[in-house]
Amino acid sequence: MIRMIKEEYKYSALTSQIIKCAMTVHSALGNGFQEVIYQRALAIEMKLATISFDREMEMPIYYRADHWNAKSRFFSGR
Fold first, then answer.
1. Rounded to an integer, what distance in angstroms lies between the CA atom of residue 59 and that of residue 40?
2. How many degrees, rounded to 5, is the angle at CA 58 between CA 37 and CA 21?
3. CB 10 within 8 A of CB 2
4. Domain range list for the chain
5. Average pLDDT per 10 consecutive residues for the chain, totaling 78 residues
């Protein structure tokens, strides 16, 4: 497997790990499930990879002149 880690990018290694987890979930489950199923499976993979994260974290969203709060599905705070 080719690893696309670019040392000049601060979070390249973490991004690579997260993508690997997502690809593992997709390979195992395939298509057709509700989003929550993929979220739960991704949480399992990220725990196994010792990636710290929060699920359903509320965060402010800013777009042009508008602002609102929304829940982010996953947030890695490593």
1. 20
2. 40
3. no
4. 12-75
5. 69 90 96 93 96 87 89 69
Task: Return d(Cα 63, Cα 65) in angstroms, integer.
Answer: 6
Q: How far apart are CA 65 and CA 22, in angstroms?
A: 34
Cα–Cα separations (whole angstroms), residue 50 to 14, 27, 44, 66? 11, 20, 10, 36
How far apart, in whole angstroms, are the C-alpha atoms of residue 7 and residue 12? 7
Q: Positive or negative CA dihedral for 37, 41, 44, 47? A: negative
The first and second tokens of residue 28, run together, are: 């195992």
